[in-house]
Queue: 2 jobs
Job 1
Amino acid sequence: VRVDASLGEGWFYEGAGLYRHVWMTATDPLHVAPYGAFIQAAPHGAGATGKVEVALRNQSDTPRQARVRMTVLAPNGLAMARTERLVAVDAWSEGRSEADLAWDAAPLWSPADPQLHRLSVEVELDGVVRDAVDVPFGVRSAVFDPRRGFLLNGQPLKLLGACCHQDHAGVGAALPDALQVWRIQQLKAMGCNAYRAAHNPATPELMDACDRLGMLVIAETRRMSSDPESLEELSTLVRRDRNRPSVIAWSIGNEEQTIQGTEVGAAIARTMKRVVNRLDPSRPITAAKDQDFGEGVSRVVDILGFNYRTPQMEGYHARFPDQPIMGTETGSTVATRGEYVLDAARHIVPAYDREHPWWASTAEEWWILAADRPYIAGGFIWTGFDYRGEPTPYNRWPSVGSYFGAMDSCGFPKDNYWYYRAWWRPEPLLHLFPHWNWEGRGGQDIEVWVHSNLDRVELFLNGRSLGAQSVTRNRHLAWSVAYAPGVLEARGWKDGRLVTTQRRETAGAPVALRMSADRLRLVADGEDVAMIAVDAVDARGRPCPRAADLIQFSTTGDGRIIGVGNGDPVSHEADRADRRRLFNGLAQAILQTGRQGGPITITASAGGLRPASLRLDARQTRQST
């Protein structure tokens, strides 16, 4: 199989070549058609109902009559409902079997508790099972209400979302399956409960992770068009993902500025909507628009998606009170991780929540508006992670990566990550920034911010109080502090009790490296990966926030480094390499297992610094991590 990717089509890096799995499926001539098993499950009291459709394909010269057996399995594996049907299928044609099932005691799927059922389908001919498929699904209700926003299982749930492209530092668009899972885990740790696949169908493996981990999804097709190829791509997306409890809406387009406000655009949208509704009548459609609100496509879609223009949402709701709305792209705040002074010559953007293009907003601005208006279903920040291409505001060499992410291209958090985590998760949080290494700026004022969801925060410099401030919901705290080296400390109170503290200390010169991994136990399948983080520390073990040492990676055992990165949007270092320079104190390596198993040791070294090593264990069977 060869791919000609010499002509790019996206305004962002889409990848090239075979960067996803390619499978060859061998079946009996009589089999379930690809993506041909579909169940529309819904809560019913303490139980559930399910309308099952199975498409059979007979690729032989002989008409067949098959027995189709359908079984619903609970999350614990117990069979809860079953039925069977006889289906006649002519030669070289398709037949269809339908059934209505009901069962008791159905645990609901939700982001907090992603309970997965399974639909098992067996096709029997002449007493022999010729084909069998196993389809995960979830029991849940999902409704977009024009006044109450998004409701999951009958309860309002604000969509706390992120838009994400499909690439990662070190590996481009060819992400190992375990890295797909890791990225969803990082978003959940930030507080996200929703994911918008921008601007193309996500991999099945990422969608599997969303189902298993509890991440709601806006599934998006690549092109808003009614040509045969585009409609076939849309049909494949819907058939592939319509069983997934994570999917709550289908997006048919993104910022199609030449047609989205026209009657031509409306006609295209109606055609696409008919295709979706025929294949999946249970979910609404949306489109992400940045202008022409109320015109063209707006009149066709079930949910109107606002790309930015957040202040216009209130007026739109007043004009069209019966149409649900959400922020399909919000924020677009730009930042360079670990930088706090604007330097246009070096293409650096400070990481305070302040810099954004003209069309966008700060994190605070859009979230304050959305959080207090129930009719806004939620929003999807642009973006969860930095990505290759679109290096706004420096759309020129040497910038090669975006600045939009709440995390950089490695998944290292920027400071806005902690803003969202403070207000999107319930746990007490206090995040103090910037770092406290400002050589040559003694006595000069440094802007100090705190993101916290506590009641009150007091700031100290070298043990001296700089004053306490009360926290206003969804807003940050700020002090202007005359720089002196030492210890900057924030103390946070809740209900009159000291809950947590955080310190930023002036670090000395780096003397050693430190290394960590997301997991130490891996699967020896030639595909599993561990995400390795490296930083530099001084003689007292304090992180060095400005370290830029060149790190050399080496491994022993049956493992290899498949990519490296550091989150620097200006870096031109090789991705597939055994070395990477620290960027503002951090670098990442992606370690992949072989198939033999056994211990794997990865070592990071740098000139003049004490090296760091980690030992990982790869086994040939799945294990608890």
Note: The first helix runs from residue 177 to 190.
Job 2
Amino acid sequence: MGRGSHGCSVLGSSLLLLFCLGSAAAQKASTWKTLSGNPPAIIAKGGFSGLFPDSSDFAYGFVAAASSPDTALWCDVQLTKDGAGICLPDIRMDNCTNIANVYPKGKKTYSVNGVSTPGWFSVDYDSTGLSKVNCK
């Protein structure tokens, strides 16, 4: 093979590559495979709870810092004695916080959906008293 044929193959390869790149760029970008074709909604229930305690300030803060700007934060709201809403994943605070250690004599029993349920409940404490309680 001579020097000229090598130059032709390089030129031909370059033209083929440019043609392929141009064809790929000209194709329409694929749409999302959602029912509407829009990007999927990101809903962080309980925040980033695989790494931090569910519904904690750390879990929601990490989602806000590490996720897309249109991420929705979702929490299960429990009301306190003074009417403040707090994010907790369970109606029984002893299932998700250290309240039994902070208020060891605070256990009460309520009828929840017709079932007698013992535990610590947010309606028995005001928001100031719950500031001592942490998620677990």
Note: The first helix runs from residue 3 to 26.
